[in-house]
Every structure is written in C-alpha cells, then in structure tokens.
Design brief:
The chain is of the alpha+beta class. The protein contains 11 helices and 19 strands. The longest helix is centred in the N-terminal third of the chain and has 19 residues, at about 90-110.
C-alpha cells in the first residue's frame, strides 16, 4: 500500500512548532487535493492546511490542541486508487506511525512529571535546559518570558542563568528572592454594572492585546506629523484608474503609491528600516513592508510585501490586493506575515485624518496615512501668492526613540512627503 506522509508544514524561520486547533477530516475520510484537512495556530497566525494529494486518511497521529514540531508527520494518506482495505489494522501503518508520535513525546517524557504543575506552556527544549541546570519549577514560573503571550524562550532561560546566583543550591533555597525581581503587570479592578455584556477575547484578539502592550513597554514611542499636498497623485489616479482596472483586473488605490514612496525613503534612511536587539542595531538588508488589514471579525493582521523596493507600482498593487483578499478569507500562510521591517496603517480607509499607531515589534517604525481632503491652500507663483483648492493629507510616523531621534524621524518623514509631492503625473503604469 502506497502512503503519503502529511507533515506539519514549515511555518517560517522563527516558528518551530504549531498547535492543531481543528481537524476538518477524520480517519477513513476521502480527501481531494487542496481540500482543507486541519487548522493550525502559531503565535502569529491561524492557517488551514490543504491536502497535497488525493486519497484516504488512514491514520491521524495527533489530536486537537496538541503542539507539534515543524516537519513532524501528523497523518498518513493512502493514495487514491491504492488498496487500503487493511489500512485500519495494518502492522505497517501502526509501526510506521509510532516513531512520528512517540519521538516527539519522548522529548518530554523524562520531564513531564517534573512540570505537571506548571501554570504555563514550556517547550521541550526549555524543560530540558531547566532540568539540566537545576532550575526548579518555582524559578521557571517566575522568569519573565519575551515570547508572544509571555512564553518563556530558550534565550530567557539562558539570560536567567547568567544573572542568577553562582550557586544553584542557594537559588533553590530562596525562591522568594527570585520572585521579588519579577515585575508583575498591575491588575485593574474593573466594575461591572447592570446591563453590561461580558465578552471573552478570542485567541487573535488576546495576541494583539499582548503584542501591543509589549511594544509600548519595549519601545519609547514618538510620533511626528506632516501635511502633504497630493493633488498631482489624485489627478493622475483619476486619469488612469479606469483603464488600469480594465487591463489588470484590480482596483488602483492610493496605498501602493504611498508604499512606493516609503520604500524609496527607507533606502535613503536605512536606520528607519531596522530592529533593536539589546544594545545592537540591526539594519535590515531587505525592505519588507507590512500593511495592516482590518478583518471582518474586528481583529487585525499585517501581511508583508517582501522586497517592496524592487516592485513597480503594478507589482505593489497586485500583491497588495492579493494579500488583503487572503487575509479577509483566512488564507494567509505563516510566511505571508513574517520578516516585516516597516509597517503602514491606513487610517484614511475610515476617513480618519491621522492617528498614532503602535510599533509592530521587532520593527522600529510605523507610518499612518490619513484621509485625503480638499483644502484651500496658499500657492507661490511667479506672479505672487494665490489661494487654490488642493488635495491634502497627513502622514504620521511613530518611531522607536532608542535608535531613531527626532532629526532622523523628521528627515525621513519629510523625504516621504517630498517623493509624494514630486509624483510624475505623466508616468506610465
């Protein structure tokens, strides 16, 4: 019998495991290629995993809510047209499936008893480090995690080891001392009044909330504003948008034009396209711009346009529309939302003049683009100043003051405005 091994897919460089949140199929079900089989969740995104082949699911190795490493076999599919009549009791199936599940389980088997009372999730690697270094569960519980939702990462444990007492025995005898160094998030006493409705946050909203609070705690936020005359852009778009949609099949919005200008400015000021790691500044080689997308359920996600500076206006428009549609239909892959180096939040979609967005960590800056409005403005002409109706908008740049000072932030924002105001009205798509 020919079998296909369904693996937990690669979810990007920084993601090593995922949680199975839902199985759409069960053992014995027939599947066609591209049929959704299961839903998985990481710290970054939820994704449906389609079947790569036609066939019959003969074995499911993990249950819902199991955390599975990337690359691990999660199910077997007998290929369509093959004899699978004895698949349910085949010794070959049972034998081949055991290593896939037992190997993962064995990583934690020696530690499972030690951590059975843990109040939060710890990866097998963290557990093994803790056990080998004689870090007690009480100590581990008091380590502040730098991962999403406060998850303790390998780096957190290693940092703790470097700062702990030189004697592990003394540290275990005085867990209260370690606890005193942990800063607890203050709890606000929120009253509930008659008629109030209490709604539990869904998983994505909890992640957004944690990420926003973490960003404010990590980065000192500063925001600069500038008003931009985009009359030339408005007139050019009005002239070409009908033909553009007819020829390309997608709507031409202002956002790709703004993204193009921001990409150019990031090449001029590379420190804005960066991250901070302790006392190190990481200047990103690639310009990968995330576009915040509001989802139908009220949540938010930020798909990323990779190498935005290497794409023309048509390329930016097509990719932006594709990513937005995938976001709204829950079809984004984990890779679609990773490796962003700068983000844009389009407040203008909701006719908002401007806003002060929160930095999307580990980036160091984010741009808010406001609505475009007609305004009377003073223009300088060879024959003197005149008042004319112009199309204007506000840009707001929020940046991390640890490495971006006011001079750099202001210069970058002005450069974006200059590119927009110098837009060539005679350009071709």
């Amino acid at each position: 019998m020919s079998k296909f091994e369904l693996l937990m897919p690669k979810l990007g460089e920084s993601v090593q495991e995922a949680t199975i949140t839902k199985w759409f199929k069960k053992e014995g079900d027939m599947v066609e290629e591209e049929d959704p089989i299961l839903e998985i969740a990481t710290d970054k995104v939820d994704s449906e995993i389609p079947s790569p082949v036609d066939g019959k699911i003969t074995k499911i190795l993990f249950k819902e809510n199991d955390v599975v490493p990337v690359g691990k076999v999660i199910a077997y599919i007998s290929l369509e047209g093959e004899d699978d009549s004895d698949s349910s009791n085949s010794k070959e199936t049972d034998t081949s499936s055991q290593p896939a599940s037992e190997e993962y389980q064995s990583e934690e088997s020696s530690n499972s008893e030690d951590f059975k009372d843990a109040k939060r999730f710890y990866s097998p690697l963290v557990k093994n480090i803790a056990k080998s270094e004689n870090i007690s569960l009480d100590e581990l519980e008091n380590i502040e995690g730098s991962g999403i939702n406060g998850r303790v990462k390998k780096e957190d444990v290693l940092d703790y080891m470097n700062n702990r007492s030189s004697s592990p025995k003394q540290e275990q005898q005085a867990p209260v001392k370690a606890q005193e160094t942990v800063k607890e998030t203050p709890k606000v006493n929120v009253p509930v009044y008659p008629g109030d409705e209490i709604i539990e946050m869904d998983r994505m909203r909890k992640m957004i909330a944690d990420h926003m609070v973490m960003s404010k705690q990590v980065s000192p936020h500063v925001t600069n504003f500038i008003e931009v005359d985009v009359t030339g852009i408005v007139k050019w778009r009005d002239k070409v948008k009908g033909e553009f949609q007819k020829n390309e099949g997608v709507k031409l919005t202002y956002l790709p034009i703004f993204t193009e200008a921001i990409s150019k400015a990031l090449k001029d000021y590379p420190r804005v396209n960066s991250s901070v790691d302790g006392t190190k500044m990481i200047l990103r080689k690639n310009i990968n711009i995330g576009i915040a997308v509001a989802l139908p359920d009220g949540n938010l996600i930020v798909p990323v346009i990779k190498n935005a500076d290497q794409k023309n206006l048509l390329g930016l428009t097509v990719e932006m529309n594709t990513l937005a549609e995938k976001a709204r239909t829950n079809k984004l892959s984990p890779d679609d939302i990773q490796q962003g180096t700068f983000s844009i939040s389009n407040f203008g979609t909701f006719k908002n003049v401007t806003g002060t967005p929160v930095i999307n960590q580990p980036q160091t800056a984010i741009m808010a683009v406001g609505t475009i409005e007609k305004k009377p403005a003073v223009l300088e002409t060879p024959s003197g100043d005149v008042i004319a109706i112009r199309h204007k908008m506000f840009l707001a740049l929020t940046y991390d003051h640890r490495i971006i000072d006011g001079a750099l932030g202001g210069a970058f924002l002005k450069r974006v405005a200059d590119y927009l105001e110098a837009f060539d009205m005679n350009r071709k798509i």
